[in-house]
Design brief:
By secondary structure, the chain is α/β, with parallel strands linked by helices. It contains eleven helices and ten strands. It folds into two domains: 1-81 and 168-255, P-loop containing nucleotide triphosphate hydrolases (Rossmann fold, 3-Layer(aba) Sandwich), CATH 3.40.50.300; 88-166, no CATH class. The chain has helices spanning 44-52, 74-79, 97-108, 116-119, 123-135, 151-163, 181-194, 207-213, 231-235, 238-243, 246-254, and strands at 6-15, 18-28, 33-37, 59-64, 67-68, 82-84, 169-173, 199-203, 216-221, 224-229. A hairpin with a 2-residue loop joins β9 (216-221) and β10 (224-229). The longest helix is centred in the C-terminal third of the chain and has 14 residues, at 181-194.
Length: 255
């Protein structure tokens, strides 16, 4: 395995008596699509929060690109190239898709949202915004008001906002949540196109999508890693199958 882009060593986070991250260790190689799966309450969101700097771990270390980022604030991690699909907490529904992505570029550069009008005129903001929309298949929707767009398009737009900041790694927290089959298929196709172009850490409940896309899969249960390997190996892991019941288990077992 090449030198990891992201390396997590012994990451631990407690909320009172609940251990949400229990000595988590994993490494993500450059260009890899690494999926994090686990049942509800497994600690996936807590892990992502620690990676982005929204939550401070109680113990352990996070290295990104060879640099210890464990105590760095979120904006410093973003500047280093660590982007989250919903880094901006909500879309500006009354603005166009292009406006939203241009604002993400502007915010990444450290400018205030109070100057949003500049984002509509500034070529240095509009050009990367157009390119990002093209990469997610929304360039023809660039001038649509976001409120008129579908849920699936909103998720694509959030990814475009992350891509527009030229990240080294993209953190995606359930990008297919709430999607219908057709929208899910479009998202899988998009992630397959992005795979290899940049490193992706994907948290997702859709097991069919996970096993179709991932190079490696890490399974969390009660904040603890119970497996971390290729999809073929994880598929055969008895402890993983036990952690998923019914339909989820069938997907993992049979693919």
């Amino acid at each position: 395995m090449p030198e990891p882009l992201l390396e997590i060593d012994g990451l631990t986070k407690r909320f009172g008596g609940v251990v949400a991250s229990d000595g988590i260790r994993l490494a993500v190689a450059p260009g890899e699509l690494h999926a994090i799966i686990g049942p509800n309450g497994a600690g996936k969101t807590t892990l992502i929060g620690q990676l982005t700097g929204e939550l401070a771990p109680d113990a352990g270390r996070i290295r990104f690109g060879g640099t210890d980022i464990t105590r760095l604030p979120a904006h410093r991690r973003s500047l280093m190239g660590l982007a989250r699909s919903f880094q901006i907490t909500s879309l500006f529904l009354d603005f166009t898709a292009l406006d939203n992505v241009a604002l993400a570029v502007q915010a990444h550069a450290g400018h205030s949202f109070r100057f949003w009008r500049n984002a509509r005129r500034e070529r240095a903001l509009r050009e990367p915004a157009h390119k990002a929309l093209a990469r997610v298949g929304l360039v023809e929707r660039a001038h649509c008001i976001v409120a008129s767009m579908s849920h699936g398009e909103h998720r694509q737009l959030e990814i475009a906002m992350g891509l527009a900041t030229a990240p080294r790694m993209l953190l995606l927290d359930e990008p297919m949540a709430g999607m219908g089959p057709e929208e899910s298929q479009r998202m899988v196709a998009l992630l397959r196109e992005l795979k290899g172009e940049l490193t992706i850490l994907l948290v997702e409940h859709d097991m069919e999508a996970v096993f179709a896309l991932a190079d490696r899969i890490t399974v969390l249960v009660y904040g603890r890693v119970i497996a971390s390997d290729t999809p073929a190996v994880v598929r055969l892991n008895a402890e993983v199958r036990q952690a998923y019941l019914g339909e989820q288990e069938a997907v993992i077992r049979h693919g």
